[in-house]
User: Fold this.
Amino acid sequence: MIIGETPLPAGALGVDAVAMTMRFGDFVALDNVALKVRPGTFHALLGENGAGKSTLVKCIMGYYHPTEGDVLVGGREQAIANPKDAHALGLGMVYQHFTLVPAMTVAENLVLARDDVPAVLEWTKEKKQLAAFLARMPFKVPLDSRVSDISAGERQKCEILKQLYLKRRFLILDEPTSVLTPGEADEVLGMLRDMVLGGDLTILMITHKFREVMAFADEVTILRRGKLAGHGKVADLTPDNMARMMIGAEELTIQPARVGGVGEARLELDKLSALDDAGAIAVRGVSLAVRGGEIVGIAGVSGNGQRQLVEVLAGQREAESGEVRVAGDIYRASREEMRRHKMSLLPEEPLKNACVGGMSVADNIAFREFDRAPFASGGWWLNRTAFRDDAEKKIAQYKIKTRTPDTPISALSGGNVQRTVLARELGGDVEVLIAANPCFGLDFAAVAQIHAEIMAARNRGAAVLLVSEDLDELLELSDRLVVMFHGQFVYEARASEADLTEIGRHMAGH
Amino acid sequence: MADGTIGLWTVPLAVFGGAIRVSTPFLFVSLGECITERSGRINLGLEGTLVMGAMSAYGVSYLTGSPWLGVLAAGVTGSLLGALHAGICSLPRVNDIAVGIALMLFGTGLAFYLGKPLIEPTAPRLPAIDFGWWSDIAQLRAALRINVLFLIGVVLAPVLYWAFRTTRWGLLIRTAGESSDAARAMGYSVLAIRLKATMVGGFLAGIGGSFLSLFYPGSWNEGLSSGQGITAVALVIFARWDPMLCLWASLAFGGAAALGPALQSVGITSGYYLFNAAPYILTLAIMIITCSPKRTLTGAPAELSITR
Assistant:
């Protein structure tokens, strides 16, 4: 700041991005985008994955230097060279991934975030000041608990509190509710909205949830493929208008109708328990039967044992006790059993859990069958032509965007990695399908395709277990819905009769 | 005991005295490694640092006549080796464990090369404080001759424990070790923090080396270290990255190492080599008892390449 210049106005700050263009080599991530966030408003930034939302806010925060364009803070042009400059102006950001240190206490995390951490801390004094600060805040968090011991909702509150503790007046939130129950999301956003109405704060929230935009935002800006696709007052728009602006004229795969009756129980869990990496019990004696021609959805906030449950079914983790039966036989996730029972798996983070990143798309597609005819002779001599032919067929059928079948799979986008796994897992006959957050972080086109494939597998008679943190996805696809909390199934309902508030209450453990 | 002998009491007394003498290098290297690992990096090169420290301490002590200048020189040499490790590890896609092994070989090799002329001469040694002046039992007096470096190490452990909790530097080192994303989001340079932590770690490991050449065994030769540096790195793991536990683990290790010589001194010579293996058997036993395939280590800094 220039000395002698009049200081920025007190209270909520407005931020404008003018004619922002950001190029990474040949790739244009942002193309002449304008964003106007007026002081004291709650502004939503909508767009698909890869639309340029994160790039835009990172340009505002000084993580990236835009190729062209300016940032105006409080109506004045500011050169923001790095995040420290942005912080000095009163701009703050809450990241999608938590930036709290899990092994430290809440108090340590808050104090550490300050710019003026003293060399030796007087904890008695610091704690007193923190308690006084918390007393003025709408959220409560346990100061002496370690961050790893508090719930995701409390962590998100801590992240926001940290920004308020640092006296930010313009706050960017990147998908702040992705790990919260609907109830927690409403609580956090409602409190932030009150602070905005009080004139202390301006909020720019990146999201893809229309429900939250409609309920909390004043204005919205929509990006599509790096370009401004629309903006306006939320009151003048409907979710349909906004969805159109987000996806443009792209054709989405149409999901087949729910047809066919349920059959015999295919996948049965009997008092199954499993431990987490720290050796604590994560899955507590759960029992469930999934029948053929049925999708059973498991809802729950992340970290309630779903991951460990899926890992046991995938063969990545040993069960502590209890058993899994498939078509009446004991199932221990051996390759032979998976093949015999035609098990398919769509794990979360497919690049990590279902692919070998450095191997080609063709090799990754062949994992299930590579040691049998026609891919191998005698179980060991591999026939590369057969790999290639099969891969080319599936790449076309599943619309996988890759340069060649020999490209390493880690070079593909998230949507195309998941399409590749989809081609491998659902390309043949399927009797049991286990899917965990199959659409996390993917764009509309990939989501529509994956949902259509899951529904088609169900209609062909497969037993589907769908674990997801996205309630809308579960309500859309499931026949039955189970809520998982603290490693146990605490609630079950037919999806057609399920009540969102009831489910949300059980997800939060009430 | 009018005749001045104390019979079988020699054994626990010798183990006690040995624990203090043998544990000092373990203590310094493990405290140094504790600082480095809490910042998110493993420096396996501390074995090389220890030997380089021993050589440079002996050399400087011989040339200047002051053992304390030797200790300082050992620390400075150690921090230079630490800076080298951290500098190489700052480059993209460099594995800290591979660099550590390379520096371990480099440090020992360089020390042997530069230390050739130091094998013959005798350098002034570090003084010890005679806590056993009140007794006239020779063994007790020997056991209670305690070196100042050991006392410094004993004070250092609780100081580090306190510093990790209540100082800005302690919190920053832990942040870099637990979540480099968090540290970066706060605007701190993770590489700079790790550089400093590795240099301090090297400084302490160098001092540990100076104890070897300037007090016990108290000379410079190529067989001086029997792997204390690398064992101390393992010590940090089962001390769960806690400086106070590093102190207790070092003492237990020193005591186990003193068992063989102590038994020999009362005439039990059968199984001498077996008793000499006691520290390593202790290591294996602790590893087997505390490890489980079903869970990850508690207390491990999340950014370490072995836990990530």
